[in-house]
Amino acid sequence: MLTSLVIKNFILIEDLELFFAHRLSVLTGETGAGKSILLDAVGFVLGSRAESSLVGANGDTAVVSATFEIGAGHPVRSLLDENGIIGSELVFRRTLTRDGKGKMLLNDMPVTVTLAKSIGAYLVEIHGQFDNHRLLDPSTHIAVLDEFGGIDAGGVAVAYSKWQIAMAEHARAREEFEKAKADEDYLRHNLDELAKLNPSAGEEELLDARRHSMMAGEKVRTAIADALANISRFGPEPSSFISGAARILERADVPDITAMLDSAASQLMDAVERLTDLSAAADGDNLDDITDRLFKIRELARKHRVKPDELPGLLVSMRKIAEGLENSDGFLRGLAAKEEVAKAEYDYEAAALTNARQRAAETLAERVLAELAPLKLGGATFRVNIAPVHPRPNGVDDVCFVGSMNVGAREGLLHKIASGGELARLTLALKVVTMDSGSADTMIFDEVDTGISGATAAAVGERLARLGANLQTLVITHSPQVAARGANHYRVSKSYNEETGRTTTLVEALATRGRVLEVARIISGDKITQEAINAAESLINN
């Protein structure tokens, strides 16, 4: 809800602060007094086009501030959260200098004019001379109809999402299988290559460690082999030569030397046995075999652009793809069936949604038409057109409001065929019918009573009051019947200052007696008669 409006040096307004309340507020004043300047100021602070001509004569800068109160569950809250704007109070402040430079602030934070305009659209709807007719904007009609009919399109949105997921899954699998089939020979070659190698997780690291260990012991293995080779020059049993020498010395009776040779023969046999055992142990691991396998693992890892430890998983994946190729037709048929089921569910939900919208459209049209005759729009028609469109998350319907302003006239989009006053009254009728269905908190009407009087003006006033009971409603009016309905009344007037030579616009909030006199002035003109006062009191009291 708009709670206050502060205007400084804006067109004819030098310095003005207004406070607004709930219900219907009326603004009256003589023609040319500057009533529409207030609407210009609201539009300006909420992002409408700014021109240097808006800057008044009392300085080089125009400043307008507007304060709004919003509830915790207000529809604009998500947009505010996205942009880091917090608080239950929104203060728009916009400045404009004579050279065309300006600033837009929201809660003292700089924002773009586009963002301010987007946020303002949730807070205020201005109807009349401004091109801001949310209810007559075709892009909003489907939401207005759903809100009016209490229609929840959530089921359709869920079904649409499931259908799109199933469709994408089917398309992706079909594409993958087609690509895999084209590369099947290459796939099977790689699979055979990997299967023969059959690497295991961690094997590359283990082989690398063993290879380094074996390379470090190469000197020891070479020495053992050389020693055995030297010893083997004396035959398969080199100790027999020493034993033979000992037997010869036995005959010469040299016992000490014989014992030494027997001991040497025994030690040589032990040495040969141990060297043979060490050589056999060293030959258990073949360095060439380990090196070949290690390098093959690394080569395949580079080829497939994976880490060596990822090769076992790649092998499993390739086997699944190969198996899938053999069963691809059946798998794709299963995905196609899943997609068809999801599409059927969407079609069912969308058809039910269309039926609900058609019923709501008939009711909405009937109620709007019932409001038009009392508003001097008896020759107008109104219809909710529902046309089929390609499937969307909110159904298969394109919704727009169409009609005509005169009997026999061709139907068209309402905002293109109606005059300002007709459009304001048509919007009023729509708002009265849909006011419980969600909208901006504040409605502002201008030209709503243009060209009408008497019973028609009374009908307009009665509907504005009904609207004001639910939404904060502001109306600029020249009609006593409308003015008398206001719960709050503001009189706009002009004042000429001889010292400064400037004309300024003033706004005064009227109390009870002031209201009576202002309504009487509207009835009788500049000379307020007692009859006009009596008529004004009657209108206000009734």
Write a brief caption for the model.
By secondary structure, this protein is an alpha/beta fold. The protein has 19 helices and 15 strands.
Model description:
The strands form 3 sheets. Strands 2-1-4-5-6-7 form a 6-stranded antiparallel sheet, covered by helices on one side. Strands 8-12-13-3-14-15 form a 6-stranded mixed sheet, sandwiched between helices. A hairpin with a 7-residue loop joins strand 10 and strand 11. The chain has a domain at 172-330. It is α/β, with parallel strands linked by helices. Helix 5 packs antiparallel against helix 13, helix 6 (184-197) crosses helix 12 and helix 7 packs antiparallel against helix 11 (287-304). It contains 19 helices and 15 strands.
Which key terms come to mind for this protein?
19 helices, 542 residues, six-stranded antiparallel sheet, 55% helix, 19% strand, alpha/beta, six-stranded mixed sheet, elongated
Give a topology summary.
Layout: E1 2-10, E2 13-19, E3 24-28, H1 35-45, E4 61-69, H2 77-82, E5 89-97, E6 102-106, E7 109-110, H3 113-123, E8 124-127, H4 138-149, H5 154-182, H6 184-197, H7 203-216, H8 218-231, H9 239-251, H10 255-282, H11 287-304, H12 311-326, H13 328-372, E9 381-392, E10 395-404, E11 412-413, H14 414-417, H15 420-434, E12 442-445, H16 454-470, E13 472-476, H17 480-483, E14 488-497, E15 502-509, H18 512-524, H19 530-541
Parallel strand pairs: 3-13, 3-14, 8-12, 12-13
Antiparallel strand pairs: 1-2, 1-4, 4-5, 5-6, 6-7, 9-10, 10-11, 14-15
Helix pairs in contact: 4-13, 5-13, 6-12, 7-11, 8-10, 9-10, 13-15, 15-16, 18-19
